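Entry 14. Ran structure prediction on the chain below.
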Amino acid sequence: MAENEQDPRIKLLEESWKHPAARPLMEKAFKTAFPQAEIPGLALREAAETVEKKLFEREQAIDTKLAEFDRKREHESAVGELKKNGYSADQIKEIEKIMADEGVGLHVNAAVIYDARTKVAAPRSTQSQYNAMSPQRAYTRGQYAPFFAGIMDGPHSNPGEDWARDTVDTIMQDFATDRAGAEKKWSDDTYWPASQTWQAAQKKA
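Output, structure tokens:
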């Protein structure tokens, strides 16, 4: 190597030291190789990193507390709503158990599931809105039996099909014979085996 020629290794170190991204890595490398060496830039950067880390941890702790506060407030609101709707403390525990066990996210949704599993629906009345007798009661009673004859006949999956077809045929025949009378008769909501109209028709027949 000529006397005035620079060692390539030194040149490489100098160029790397000038590079903003490479310099911090070199400072750490020097500190590793020479632990007692004082490297001002590295010390300042490490101090700044320590401060940033503490600030980040503090922000994380604050965010966690705020999230917990919001969660607690939402929980209290949801439970309060259930109480207003008449659910007891034990029922609310069961609702929240559904949430935990089945991954249901909202109290209101879990309450719907709870109700479906625990509450018995009110029995449905077989009495029509016009106070007429239902087929379930009427088809076995002697004076109404002609109208309901065959209503329970047929396969288990589709009972009464023939009865329904015969009834439709009767209605169609009425319209073919006397359209105006048929419209009046079959549009009458009280035309039902319990009505005087139907009974009178049976007596004439």
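The two ends are 134 Å apart (CA to CA). Will compare against last week's run tomorrow.
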